[in-house]
Specification:
The protein is of the alpha/beta class. About 50% of the residues lie in helices and about 10% in strands. Strands 2-1-3-4-5 form a 5-stranded parallel sheet, sandwiched between helices.
C-alpha cells in the first residue's frame, strides 16, 4: 500500500525508504536460469532482465499479466520563447487523439496487451516561463506528483509512463544540464524537429534557465525546470518503486524525470530498465549517467511512452523463455 503523500517531504521520505527487490526470489530465478535447456548465458540480456523482473515480483516463474501504460500531458510557459516547431495547442489536440485511440502509443499499448490511461494536467494553465521564475510552486509540484502517485493501478505488474507536452524537450534538457553540468548544447536536441536557428535559441533558453535556478537537488530541479507531466511521471515511477512494480523507462523526457528521483535516492531506479535509446540529443549521455543500457535503439523520438511500450515485447520474450522453458531434468537432456 502506498503511504499518504501530503507534502514534498512525504515524497522524499517514501522514496528513500522504499523496499528493495526480493533477494530470495532473485536467488531462485538465478537457480532456475542455470537449469534451463540452453548453454549458460546463451540468451544474453534476456536472462538478466528475466531475473531482474522476477526479483521485483517475488517469484522464480514470473509472467506479465497486467501491464499499464500511462500518458501524462502538460503545457509549458517556456514555449512562448519559440523553442518548439509546434504551438502548445497541439498538446490538447493530441490528448484527444490518445483518448480516441489514434496515436502510435495506442497501437503499441494494444499490441502489448496493456491498459492505457491518459491524464491531462491543467492544459489551460501552462507552467511559468522558467527563464524568469520557477516553472512550478511547491504546491503545484506536489499536485503533479500526486497525480502520478495515484495513477498506477492496484494490479499493475509492469509500468510504462509517457508524456505529451509541447516544449518538454526544453524542460528535459534544462533538468539534465542542472543535474549533471556541462554546457546547454550537451543536452539540447531538436525535439519536434526545429531548424538550426531555433535550436540555437532553444540552447540559449536552456542555458538561461539553468543559470537562473542554481540547484542540483532532484525535487528542486523538478520544480524549477520541469513541467506538470514530467513531475507526474516522476510520481508514478516512485509509486511503482515503493510497490515493487518494474518500470520500463521511455525516452529523453521520461529519463529526465527519472533522473530527478535518482538524485533523491541512489536506489530510486533499481526497479527500472531503459526501453530504448531515442534519437533525441542527450539521451545516450543521460542513460549513461543513470547506468541504464537500452533494450532497443531504433532512432525513435516520438515520446508518448512509445519506445518503452514496444520494449514490453522484449521483456515478455525474456519471461516466456525463463518461465516456460524446460529444465535439463524435465527434458531429459544432458547438461554436460
Amino acid at each position: 500500500m502506498l503511504p499518504d503523500l501530503n507534502t514534498l517531504s512525504d515524497f522524499r521520505n517514501a522514496l528513500e525508504q522504499a523496499p528493495a527487490a526480493d533477494a530470495a526470489a532473485r536467488s531462485a530465478c538465478e537457480a532456475r536460469n542455470g537449469q534451463l535447456t540452453k548453454p549458460p548465458g546463451a540468451l544474453g540480456q534476456l536472462e538478466e532482465i528475466a531475473i531482474w523482473y522476477g526479483s521485483w515480483r517475488k517469484t522464480d516463474r514470473p509472467e506479465i499479466r497486467t501491464p499499464q501504460v500511462i500518458v501524462f500531458a502538460g503545457n509549458h510557459g517556456v514555449t512562448a520563447r519559440g523553442v518548439s516547431a509546434f504551438p502548445s495547442e497541439v498538446t490538447v489536440q493530441m490528448v484527444a487523439n490518445f483518448k480516441a485511440g489514434g496515436a502510435a502509443i495506442n497501437q503499441l499499448a494494444r499490441l502489448a496487451g496493456a491498459r492505457m490511461d491518459v491524464h491531462a494536467l491543467d492544459l489551460e494553465r501552462p507552467t511559468a516561463d522558467f527563464t524568469r521564475e520557477p516553472a512550478m510552486s511547491e504546491e503545484e509540484l506536489l499536485q503533479a506528483l500526486q497525480t502520478g502517485w495515484s495513477a498506477v493501478h492496484s494490479d499493475t505488474d509492469l509500468l510504462v509512463v509517457g508524456e505529451m507536452g509541447i516544449g518538454n524537450t526544453t524542460s528535459a534538457a534544462a533538468i539534465c544540464n542542472a543535474l549533471y553540468g556541462g554546457v546547454a548544447s550537451d543536452w539540447t536536441g531538436r525535439g519536434t524537429g526545429v531548424g538550426d536557428e531555433a535550436l540555437s535559441l532553444k540552447t540559449q533558453v536552456v542555458a538561461e534557465a539553468v543559470a537562473l535556478h542554481d540547484s542540483r537537488d532532484g525535487l528542486d530541479v523538478l520544480r524549477c525546470l520541469g513541467g506538470r507531466e514530467v513531475a507526474a511521471m516522476a510520481g508514478a515511477i516512485a509509486a511503482a518503486r515503493i510497490r515493487r512494480i518494474p518500470v520500463i523507462l521511455d525516452g529523453f523526457i521520461c529519463c529526465a524525470a527519472a533522473a530527478c528521483l535518482a538524485e533523491i535516492s541512489d536506489h530510486a531506479l533499481d526497479h527500472a530498465i531503459a526501453g530504448h535509446q531515442s534519437a533525441e540529443g542527450g539521451h545516450q549521455a543521460l542513460l549513461s549517467r543513470l547506468g541504464k543500457s537500452p533494450l532497443l535503439s531504433l532512432e525513435l523520438r516520438l515520446g508518448e511512452g512509445s519506445g518503452a511500450a514496444l520494449a514490453i515485447q522484449v521483456l515478455k520474450g525474456a519471461l516466456e523463455c525463463h518461465s516456460g522453458m524446460a529444465t535439463f531434468a524435465e527434458a531429459g537432456v544432458s547438461d554436460g
